Amino acid sequence: MAEAKLPKVLREKSFVFTLVASILAPLIRLMFRVKTEGVENLPKGGYILVANHVNYLDPLAFAYSVFISMKRTPHYLAKESLFRLPVIGALLPKVGQIPVYRTGRSNEEPLRAAVDFLKAGQVVVVFPEGTLTRDPDLWPMRGKSGAIRLAIELGLPIVPAGHWGIEKIMGTYSKKLRPNPFHVVRVKIGKPMRFDELRKDGVSAQEVNQATEKVMRAISAIVGELRGETPPKELWDPAKHGQAEIGNFRKTK
Asked: Domain 15-166+180-244 is in which class?
């Protein structure tokens, strides 16, 4: 099996990405509208944008928001299997998307690619849950620490964001589209979070885990504002509910 290619750092809003975006943006607008709030919270330069993960359309909704409303180019840490799809797989690295492996492979090289983009002052987008939420009410669940570790290593901010409304267009783990060009998917950007106090020798796993939970709670709070509801006190943990960590856990029932 051929390995997914790693992208090279291109200038912000490269010709290839702009061309692809000009084709995709009208198609996205035919499925739903994206309304972005909180753009004034965005820092200059490189940062890691993190958000909740509800369904397979999330990356498109956020890519639209980042490119059109935030005026930046999104570079996703995306599951490697997408890079093996015909046509799409060849295109993804050309538009600066980064493959990550879920099992059986080290992600050291993909993370180095993400570091290169961030050092170049660009934006990396991460869904820190690592998969679609398993929470039965679609709240953000517990997160993985990759984004936090990048932020600590580089001394860059993490920008928490949330979205709501995309679940009306496509259900979680469903591939059935219900497009509605008048339906609004809301994206809200929170205030940047920094973890400079953790930039030290010997940062513990506990400190990283606590920082990760803090970020996930910030995302949950934003989602709560969009939903007009109070988030659960405890983040959903698949392990505590006997659910698979990756893939479509519903197929394993």
From this structure: alpha beta
Average pLDDT (26-35) is 97
* Contact call for residues 160 and 222 (beta carbons, < 8 A): yes
State the helix-helix crossing angle for 146-154 and 108-119, rounded to 10 degrees. 50
Q: How far is CA 49 from CA 29, 38, 116, 136, 171, in A?
A: 22, 13, 16, 25, 23
Evaluate if pTM is beyond 0.85.
Answer: yes
Burial of 11 (0-12, 13-18, 19+ CB in 10 A): exposed
Do β-strands 184-189 and 98-100 pair in parallel, antiparallel, or remain unpaired?
Answer: unpaired
First to last CA, the chain: 29
Q: What is the pLDDT of residues 195-212, one digit of tens each?
A: 999 988 888 999 999 999
Residue boundaries of the structural domains of the chain: 15-166+180-244
CA-to-CA distance for 98 and 146, rounded, in angstroms?
A: 14
**Per-residue pLDDT reduced to its tens digit, 174-197:** 889 999 999 999 999 999 999 999
pLDDT (0 to 100) of residue 250: 63
Q: Is the dihedral of CA 81, 82, 88, 91 positive or negative?
A: negative
